[in-house]
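If I may wish for something, please walk me through the protein I am sending here so I can picture the backbone:
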Amino acid sequence: MKKILSILGSTLLVVPGTTSTISCGPPKKDSNKLEDIIKVTDLGEFDSFLDITISKSTLYDRFVELNNKIEPGDVLLYLFDDSSAYIVPDIFSNKTGRVKITFTVKQENSLKSFITQTDLGTIENKKSETIINKLKELNPQIDELEYPSIRVDNTFDLFEDSQTISNRGFEQPGVVSVTFKVG
């Protein structure tokens, strides 16, 4: 009887010890890196440049819909050119990093035929007015646009040496990325 009790006692001590060793461990931590969270980076096709310039919410809404682990307001979308944008954390978000997303637009990018010189060279500052003035100087054909609504789309510093230009005019909408050096 003593032997049976000692065998049972040692078995009971070993089993719970083994179980707690297996079940213990650090809790799994969710990543805050956008690269780990964002699974879908190709947003598919859009009908018009107006869908992605005037109403960026169309592009943003599709991104959130395809990436259900992203909550609206966690990230910002910055249009880069006529086929890509960048997702970056909102200033109040705990997310980190940035992710390039892509898309296509059925409509022809009419702006590209008016802005052929995209390297602006050296400009004195990165203000929108300076960029637009230099763009018009190097591309005088911009004045031929019907109902132009040329603007610098992103007033952020995602890239030090480039900026996104869009025409939100209904006749020749489009998006072009320009490069420059500040000096």
